[in-house]
Every structure is written in structure tokens, then in C-alpha cells.
Amino acid sequence: MSEESQVLKLRRAKAEELEASGVPLFPNNFRPEDKAGAIKEIFADYDQERLAKLKATFKVAGRLMAKRDFGKAVFAHLQDETGRIQIFLKKDELGAEKFKLFKKYFDLGDIVGVEGPLFRTKTGELTILVKELVLVTKAFRPLPEKYHGLQDVELRYRRRYLDLIMNERVREIFRTRTWIIQYLRQYFSSQGFLEVETPMMQPIPGGATARPFKTYHHALDQELYLRIAPELYLKRLLVGGFERVFELNRNFRNEGISVQHNPEFTMLEFYEAYATYEDLMTRTEEIFLGLAKELTGGTRITYQGQEIDFTPPWPRIPFKEALIQIGQVPEEVLASREKILAFAREHEIKLDEREQVLGKLWAKLFDALVEPKLIQPTFIVAFPVDISPLARRNEENPEVADRFELFIAGREIANAFSELNDPRDQRQRFEEQLKRRLADDPEIHPEIDEDFIRALEYGMPPAAGEGIGVDRLVMLFTDAPSIREVILFPHLRPER
């Protein structure tokens, strides 16, 4: 029998003994009235004399995280969602029978309820003197070993419930994530945007180029796709007369997993009628600066040892110029597919040598040579039209789109453009995409969204739209190196 099996067997045997003695293992009649964190904050400055004058008792429930036995007295720590607090159990205060039950049958990991007054120990630690004790939930499995905790990274993600129990830093990341999402909602609501929900299952996946997940609806006898983006539905709402809309929700892409990618991820997308991509650059600076000030009190954060300064305005660099100046790609190389492929071979950059679209080859060079160098917030603008199928052409140079991508700490955080609202140009771009699909590009759906074209033919006001990757945003503001650190239950390979 393995060591784990032995421990489980012993714990279950103890639990059965406890239950046989008349103590319920999973009662539902204890109601905590206080939180550990609030108690420690409110009474932080109280010395023993002031605490002794308090007539109140405090009622807390939490997980038993530590236990130090001194014979006729036990010190322990309880942990609730706000933190840990010390408790003190004394035989002549609690009663011999309950004291004996606690020492013999209460294990680390059990959820217990206590009630009693506060005092300070000789070392100054704020502590509850336990007058009443209740077993709230019996834990059959032991917590990870005390000193080493839960260190296996994959195990932390796979058993996130244990990760949250053992690691305060992890709990703080997810509190911050929730706060960031609330901040974004409040910001857009205050700016007159309407929060909406659009379909997660779509008959035609659109709004981005990515391999979708496929499902099937039996009643409709129809294949459906988990959405890769909400964009085309949000733009239908602009046609319908909602001039400012946003959605905070999941997207799904059937692609690789990495420190920056998860098959399902959270996106913020917002669309604003009578605005341009330049207006959205200003709005984006405002959002990120506001987040930084609210979280840190200043304009700077540290991410993975690098200081990031959100003070606007941020640099705005044309895509081609970035390749030449930052990526050190000679301008003449960018003019020819053959020269790009030769340059890539020489610099050991992996490209699909079947690719015919010049803009897509430029984009691969950008990913390898420019993106990792963009540490401070930087807008890359003037993207090639052939990799911007939903963006408006620039009026002075129709070869580029009125589009930006925001890069911070060497990765893309946001993508935005002035929206294409000419249904003729949009159909032509979709048809060009379809030709590429027929040339074996699996990320392009083999069907044009005719209803979206129809919607544009009714007239969509000029507008700008943007998508911000919420998971990457949270990574940035919590100093998390991997996207798996900021998603509660990231996707993993099946357990062996």
C-alpha cells in the first residue's frame, strides 16, 4: 500500500470513529460572523490591555492550517478567504471532552468553526481564545507537506483548489483579476458603452483567422463553431443603432498552448461609432494608465524585472518602419517574397515557404525580430491591408490599414482598427480570404458570412473597434510569467 493510501485509510478510520461518537462530519449549522483579515486589520493597534476591555467574542470559520501541541494547550492557525488568524485552545477553557476530540481527531485541512474573545500572546500575535469549537467539514485527504507546499507547477494548475489553499500569492492574483474586470466594466459603463452578449456558438466563425472548435446541434441538424471572436456580431449591433457596445467574454481557438496561449481565453471587445483607431489609442492609454494608478498609486509597474511606464503618449511606429528600424530587416528584402524567404533562412527564422501573401511573411518576421523588443507600451500602426481583412484602408495609402496593435513587455496586448463599413470592399476582402482557404489555409473558414455583408448593406456608421486580451492584461498587472497563472483552470494534457 502506498504512503498516500495509508494516510487516507487512517484519516477515514479516524473520521468513522468521530462520527460513531456522535460528532457529525459535515454539519451545516455554524454561521461565522467575522473574518480573519478584518479582525487583524481592525484590532491591529490594540494592546493586551485594550483587548481585555473588549466584551465582544468573535466567530470565525476556516481551514486548520497549523497545529502546535503543548499538552494542556494547543496553538493553531485558521485560514479563511481573507487570511489566517491564530487560535488558542486550552483544556480548562474549552472543556476536557472537546479539547480531547480536537487533539485526537481534528486534522490539518479540516474546516472548523471557533468562537471566543481576542488576546495577544507574549510574542504579540493577535489570537482568539477558543470558548466554542465545531467541526464544520472533515477533510479525508491531507494538505501538501507544510514546508515545501505545492511546488509542482503542473500539479498546481491541475489541482487549483490546493494551489489556492496553500498559496496566498495565487489567491491575490485572482482577486486582482476580478478587480481588473470590474474596473473595465465600470470604465466602459461610465463612458456610455452598453454591455452586451453575443453568440458563443456560431454557424460561421468570423472576426479573426484561427482554427475553430466544431460542435453539432442535433435539433437544428447543423454544425456550429465555438466563436473565435465576437466582432461580426458586435458590428451588427452598430448597424442596429447601438453606437457604443462592449463585451467581456470567452473566445475559443483550436490552436497551440504556450505561456501566452490557452484554447479558451477572455477578451474585452468594444466598438465606438463615429470614432477612429486614433481615438482608440488615446482611450487605450487612458485605460492602462487608470489601471496602473488604481493598482499601484503611480504610473509604473514592474513586470518580470522590467519597469514598465504607462505615462502617455506612447510611441506610434508604422509596421514597415518597425521591421526596418527595430527588426533590422533591409528595406529591399521586404519588397520580394524570394528575398524574404532567403533572409529568413539566413537568420534561422521559420517561415511557410508556400505562403504567397507578402503581408503574412512580414508578420512572421515581425513576430521573430520586433515583438520581443517592444518592452515599453508601443503602438504599431499602418498594417498591410492583406493581413487586415476587416480594417478600413488608409485614405492616403490604400496599401495599409488604419489599424494598431499594442505591445507591452514583448507581447501583443490589444488589436484595433477603424472598421471597414463599405460592403463592396468587405466582400472583395472575404473573397480574397476564400481563395487562400482553397490554397490550404485551415485558419480561414470556407464560407463568407453573407448576413454580415447584408447588415453592412443596410449601413453601418463609421466606427472603430478594439480587442484587449484580458488574460495577458492580468499577467502584466500581477507580474505573472505564464497565462496559466492567471486562468483558474487552464487546459492541460490528460493526466496519465
UniProtKB/TrEMBL annotation:
GO terms for biological process: lysyl-tRNA aminoacylation. Mg(2+) 1 binds at residues 405, 412. GO terms for molecular function: ATP binding; lysine-tRNA ligase activity; magnesium ion binding; tRNA binding. Binds 3 Mg(2+) ions per subunit. GO terms for cellular component: cytosol. Keywords: Aminoacyl-tRNA synthetase, ATP-binding, Cytoplasm, Ligase, Magnesium, Metal-binding, Nucleotide-binding, Protein biosynthesis. Residues 174-494 form the Aminoacyl-transfer RNA synthetases class-II family profile domain. Its EC number is 6.1.1.6. The keyword Nucleotide-binding applies. It holds the Pfam family tRNA_anti-codon. Mg(2+) 2 binds at residue 412. It comes from the Bacteria. Homodimer. Belongs to the class-II aminoacyl-tRNA synthetase family. NCBIfam families: lysS_bact, PRK00484.1. This is Lysine--tRNA ligase. The gene is lysS.
